[in-house]
What does this fold into?
Amino acid sequence: MLRREGRPVGVITANILPRSLGEALRGQQLRPGWIATLLDGRHLVIARTAQEEAFFARPAVDWMTEFQRGTAAAATVKGHARDGTPIYAVLRRLPLGNWVLALSVPRAAIDGPLRRAVLVAATGGALAVTLAALVALVLGARLGEEVEALGADAAMVARDQPPPPRARPRVREVARVRQALAEAGAALRARAAAKREAEEHLVLLLREVDHRAKNALAVALSLIRLAPRDVPPAGFAAAAEGRITAMARAHALLARGAWTGAELQALAESELPAHAGQVRLSGPPARLSAEAVQPVAMLLHELATNAAKHGALSAPVGSVRIAWRFLPEDRALQLEWTESGGPRLTGAPSRRSFGLRLMTQLAERQLAGRLAFDWAPDGLRATLTLPAARVAPDGTPLAEAAPADRPAAVTPRPAWTGTGDLPPRVLVVEDEALLALELETGLRELGCEVVGPARNLAEALRLAEAEPRLAAAVLDINLGGGELVFPVADALAARGVPYLLATGYGSAGPLEGRDAGAVAVLRKPYQRAALGAALARALPGHQPGEGAPMAAAPKGAEG
It folds into this structure.
């Protein structure tokens, strides 16, 4: 429909001209008096080799109509033409649209001496069959094959498969349908692929949330276990509540960012809401990786707690300035905490408190960064340097750790079972600083000497391969940055060193079947009794230290 200024002004149509069909029939060069007629499904003449204009769109003669209404594929009849001339006719049903091709020959041209009549009849029959087959091939193959190909393509699309490449259709309408079918198939396949990807992403996200939740519970448990016992219950409860609340705020930020990271400014604002009037923030847009959000939040919480008790935030006129910048040489981030206006300091503390040890562990072991303190008289200054892999300008993708090659699995040699005076040396591989510190403390209480803790795959492999007299190992499965601990397990198995696996995942999928080679699998958060029982199986020749719980337990998922 053609429109001009919103009004229809014309119609464009496309038709197959009957003239072209008549030209195809006349191109067969029939003998004089022989007439080829093509009927459509309505018993109307649509092409004729003779007097086509006079007979076009007129109903066929009765014997043609009777044949067309029947079911036979071909027939030879004896009848009369419209003008009463006796004729012989050969009719052929075409495979498309119930069309019929009729070839009529005057009987006078065939009748004669018996021999000539038989010869002429045989020749005419052969010619009629050949002509019918030729016309069927020219017309039927041109349309029928392409329509059948469309059906095959539609079946492929229904099976979510791309249709095979085909030659360009010779009929324009078929070409348009094929193009539309190809576009619809591509859209359906893209939609199905997007749905599969979304489902896989959802499964991974749910598994990661489960892992992070278990890790968070384990970290909270470690905070309670490691906190000093020489403080009043109210102070102990307040400290534990503040640290766990800081973790909760960090996890809320991670959840809003789909567990991909969080902006540094938003994290700092969430950790210092009670001191907003005394704290100034400045720095370029920066985004922390998901692994760095929780430790940085706890660092800021410890600094704010110390400042509220002993530093600038304990005085009404005190203030804290938090400024950060990217270092030009390696794109690392340097964050400075500067206090002023508080009580004058007399130097560094005489003993390292739990908070100082916690901040150092978080910065150096978990974040792979550096933390320096300057106890100046006018106020504390702390400088935290984070590597580029932990933070990047907002909108810039964070660097990803390259996956390490896994050594081939080998058959382990017998485990070490020495029972001498030296304590058993246990390798600890754990990227979460608090969990590593709590595990280190628990192993020492069990009478073990701790090797490590190693926080990444490279460091863990070095210790597993080169450290002498290893008796056992406790390995966290997921070391962050996409690194898995299984190459370390293979290296330990090669030395005959038994190992325990620790994981925050609730399903066996992330274990990749490696739990078969482990003494036990500890599910975070696990109890120290479960750790002791697993070590009792790993060190059958070791006697635990005095008062250490080492009761045996069945192999499997502990805690």
